[in-house]
């Protein structure tokens, strides 16, 4: 890899992560403010609708975002054709979801859900029009523009929701939040991209891109089925109020994690694709990426596990105390899934779409089984199953991948072991310190726990291998902050 490519990767990571951190702050503000203005029932209704929206979004994208970004060469005609395909699918799905409003209401027996489904069907149209504009910005490495769009959309959406909730709009405030965010993204991507698509042309073939996208669609459907089985099960088995508790815990942990972690694919995919024929450098980037994600996200996640009690009390309020153990378990699950996340990048960068689909079948079965078994023990049992599944799947993911493509398996297992060890020590120290000052107050529990946990994590630096990891990550951080010299 040339120094220019390394610098592009680092700067892309900087803008991407900075945007996601800003979105995380806005997401947390949304949780803190709206949880006090709205009820668990309101959030339970939205959770049901978003299950349907999520399935439709997989088909609406059709894997063409990844196909567009990953393609070595993408002509103007192909880009135009992909736009019209995504837009057309968006129009169709808008009509389909509008018509599904009444069958969904019959299943869940919640009359308010009809209007929610019909209005949120417009998300398919907005996102369908924005898809290739957004993919084009990523392909051109315009990560700063994407960062501004993401932050602006989240801020505007939150402002709209808060104003609506204060005005007494109830669950409609959540609907307005979703639509406002989608509209800002569409306008922002069109303005930043400065590209208007031409008419569809049969002369520009997109057959190979659609073929690649289909494998991504099949994989994403399986992943989505596994990710939504818990929401469906809790809603059908325990009702909207427990679902609202479960959903708020999920939104507090897993949604911000996804917002920070998932967009890094847009940086990793083009970089790993370019160096896949250079095994030593490819392996170095994969192992470094695991350490960056593992330490950078794992330690904050395990602090959430240790300090779930004061975090829930401060951020959600006393009516959400039943969500405390669920939040803790989600944070553990987030840590474990993060350790395996780089494997997903390897599948995509090496064009292993079919193999990724087959592996996803296995992991989805594991996840569904764990959650279904856990549901026999209530909502908390579902959360336990959610955390147990990645504990089984992530070691399997490295073994599976090493069987089909060269992988630095030993280095990845070793790095994961170091990450888990320091996280366990951090969690124990933070929890013990927080519990010791429980009588002083909630804020004291949080502050003392954070200080103790951070000190425990820092104490790992007395071990040489942790100092080496830190030096490598510090060097990458300096590259992220270094501006490209002007020619």
UniProtKB/TrEMBL annotation:
Keywords: Cell membrane, Membrane, Transmembrane, Transmembrane helix. InterPro entries: Poly_Biosynth_Transport. It is found in: Cell membrane. It is a multi-pass membrane protein. Pfam families: Polysacc_synt_3. The chain crosses the membrane at residues 12-37, 43-60, 81-101, 113-131, 143-167, 179-197, 291-312, 324-347, 356-374, 380-401, 413-434, 440-463. PANTHER family: LIPOPOLYSACCHARIDE BIOSYNTHESIS PROTEIN WZXC, PST FAMILY PREDICTED COLANIC ACID TRANSPORTER. Belongs to the polysaccharide synthase family. This is Lipopolysaccharide biosynthesis protein. It comes from Microbacterium insulae.
């Amino acid at each position: 890899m040339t120094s220019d490519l390394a610098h592009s990767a680092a700067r892309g990571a900087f803008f991407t992560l900075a945007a996601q951190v800003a979105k995380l702050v806005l997401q947390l503000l949304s949780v803190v403010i709206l949880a006090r203005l709205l009820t668990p029932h309101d959030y339970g209704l939205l959770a049901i609708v978003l299950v349907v929206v999520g399935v439709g979004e997989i088909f609406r994208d059709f894997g063409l975002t990844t196909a567009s970004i990953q393609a070595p060469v993408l002509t103007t005609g192909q880009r135009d054709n992909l736009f019209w395909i995504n837009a057309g699918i968006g129009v169709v799905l808008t009509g389909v979801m509008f018509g599904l409003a009444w069958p969904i209401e019959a299943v869940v027996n919640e009359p308010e859900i009809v209007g929610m489904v019909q209005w949120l069907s417009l998300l398919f149209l907005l996102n369908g029009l924005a898809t290739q504009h957004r993919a084009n910005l990523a392909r051109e490495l315009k990560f700063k523009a994407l960062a501004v769009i993401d932050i602006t959309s989240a801020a505007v959406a939150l402002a709209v929701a808060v104003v609506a909730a204060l005005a007494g709009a109830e669950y409609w405030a959540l609907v307005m939040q979703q639509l406002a965010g989608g509209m800002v993204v569409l306008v922002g991507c069109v303005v930043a991209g400065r590209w208007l698509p031409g008419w569809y042309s049969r002369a520009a073939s997109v057959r190979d891109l659609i073929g690649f996208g289909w494998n991504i669609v099949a994989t994403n459907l399986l992943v989505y089925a596994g990710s939504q089985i818990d929401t469906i099960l809790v809603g059908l088995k325990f009702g909207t109020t427990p679902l609202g508790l479960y959903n708020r815990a999920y939104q507090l942990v897993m949604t911000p994690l996804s917002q920070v972690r998932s967009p890094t694919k847009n940086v990793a995919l083009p970089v790993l694709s370019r160096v896949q024929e250079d095994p030593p450098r490819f392996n170095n980037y994969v192992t470094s990426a695991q350490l960056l994600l593992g330490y950078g996200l794992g330690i904050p996640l395990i602090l959430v596990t240790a300090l779930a009690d004061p975090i829930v009390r401060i951020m959600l309020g006393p009516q959400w105390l039943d969500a405390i153990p669920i939040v803790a378990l989600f944070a553990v699950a987030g840590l474990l899934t993060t350790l395996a996340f780089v494997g997903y990048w390897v599948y995509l960068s090496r064009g292993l779409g079919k193999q990724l689909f087959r592996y996803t079948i296995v992991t989805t079965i594991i996840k569904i089984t764990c959650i279904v078994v856990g549901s026999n023990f209530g909502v908390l049992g579902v959360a336990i199953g959610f955390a147990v599944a990645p504990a089984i799947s992530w070691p399997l993911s490295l073994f599976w991948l090493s069987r089909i493509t060269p992988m630095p398996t030993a280095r990845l297992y070793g790095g994961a072991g170091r990450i888990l060890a320091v996280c366990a020590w951090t969690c124990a120290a933070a929890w013990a310190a927080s519990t010791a000052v429980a009588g002083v107050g909630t804020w004291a529990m949080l502050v003392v726990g954070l200080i103790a946990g951070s000190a425990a994590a820092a104490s790992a630096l007395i071990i040489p291998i942790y100092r080496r990891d830190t030096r490598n990550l510090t060097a990458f951080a300096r590259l992220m902050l270094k501006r490209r010299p002007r020619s």
